[in-house]
Amino acid sequence: DLPQTTWFWPEWIPRGLLTLLAAWPGVGKTYAALDLAHRVISNSPAPDDSSLEIRTGNVIYVDAEDFLPDIYERASVWQMDTSKFYPFRRPPRDLIDLSRRRYQDPLIDQCYDLRPDWVIVDSLSSVNSRGENNIEDLRVVLSFLVELAANFDLALLLIHHLRKPGKGATQPVTMHDLRGSGHLVAMARSILGIDVIKTGPDEDMNGPRQLKVLKKNRGKYPKPLSIQYYDSTT
Length: 234
What we know:
The protein is of the alpha/beta class. Helix content is about 25%, strand content about 20%. It is globular and about 50 Å long. The protein starts with 6 loop residues before the first strand and ends in a 7-residue tail after the last strand.
C-alpha cells in the first residue's frame, strides 16, 4: 500500500519529494528554475522533450531573496502568462524563515488554494534566519519542505548556492560541495547540479552550461543536458 514515485519531469524531478538544485553563484540556477516554470505554465515539454506531468499549470515562487522585479522582467521577455505565476514574497524589512509557523502557514494556505504543479524556493540560505550551518533549524526547514511536497503531491525545487573558498564557477559541482550535506543529501530525493563548461584557459561566465543529476533514488541516471543562454535583444 506504499505510494509509488510519480514524476513531474521523468527521471529528473519527482512529485511529492524534495529536489535540490546546486551550483556556484552566477551560474544560472534561477534561470533554469524559471525556464521550467515557463514550461509548466505554457504546457510545454521538458528540456529533454519528455512530457511534464502538469495538472493545474500553477507555479509558486518563494522570493526569499527579494528578487521579484528581475523575475518579472524575465517573465515579460519570455512572454510568460503571469496570471499562473504566484510569488510568495519576503515581508518588508523582514526575512522569510520557514523554520517558523508564522511563515509556514501562509505558504501552506497558498498551496491549498492553488494546488501548484511547481514550487521554487529561492534559496536555502535565505529561508532560514540562523543560516545553513545550524543543524536543528536546517532540519526543521527541510522537514517542512519535504512534508509540503508530499501533502500536496507537488514538485518542489530548493535552490542551493555553493560558496566553497578557492573554487571558481567552472569547477564541476560534486556532492562534497553541498554545505550541510548530511541533511541535504539525506532529505533531498533528487539533487541536480549546473556546471559551466570551460571552453578556454579563462573562466567564461557566458559559456555553455551542463545540467546533471548528482543523486536520485529511483531508476537510471539520465544523460546530462546542455544549457545555452541567449541575449533576448538579439
